[in-house]
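Reminder to self: tokens first, then the designed residues, so the page reads top to bottom the way the pipeline ran.
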């Protein structure tokens, strides 16, 4: 099946990125002692390898039919076992950031892609990247590795008041 040149170019650009991120995650997996964080990193590696498999299948000129992306495995993280070292906290912040960037990249790429199957697969990949980001974020929040400032209720109410007229006819 002949792909549009734009789709092939975008995937050819994605593949080395996936290769580099998988290599980085494998290094992190060796550094990390915490078993719960290891499970997350291993899930991330498995997910990214599935993304590579799907892209290679999409690129294969001998392919017949539609390509499917495998569902991401469900994972249970035991938060009581999340006693992370400072280095592990840095690693979880980095892996969360990488998931966010990969999700953004996959979604933006999908918007530019021409082939329906290629576009759909990349939207699914973006969704899986967001799920991975949320899993890492759960760990980040639990170990208080990040700070998110919050607005006051008064500021939120003022903003709500300012824009609610948009819904009125």
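Designed residues (169 positions):
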């Amino acid at each position: 099946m002949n792909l549009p040149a734009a789709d092939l170019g975008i995937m050819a650009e994605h593949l080395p990125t996936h290769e580099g991120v998988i290599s980085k995650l494998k290094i992190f997996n060796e550094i990390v002692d915490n078993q719960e964080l290891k499970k997350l990193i291993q899930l991330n590696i498995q997910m990214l390898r599935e993304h590579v498999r799907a892209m290679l299948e999409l690129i294969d000129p001998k392919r017949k039919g539609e390509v499917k992306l495998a569902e991401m495995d469900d994972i249970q993280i035991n938060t009581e076992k999340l006693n992370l070292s400072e280095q592990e906290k840095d690693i979880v912040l980095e892996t969360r950031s990488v998931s966010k960037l990969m999700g953004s990249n996959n979604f933006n790429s999908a918007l530019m892609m021409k082939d329906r199957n290629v576009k759909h697969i990349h939207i699914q990949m973006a969704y899986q990247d967001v799920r991975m980001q949320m899993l890492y974020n759960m760990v980040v929040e639990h170990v208080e590795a990040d700070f998110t400032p919050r607005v006051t209720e008064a500021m939120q109410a003022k903003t709500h008041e300012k824009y609610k007229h948009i819904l009125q006819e």
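The longest helix spans residues 5-31.
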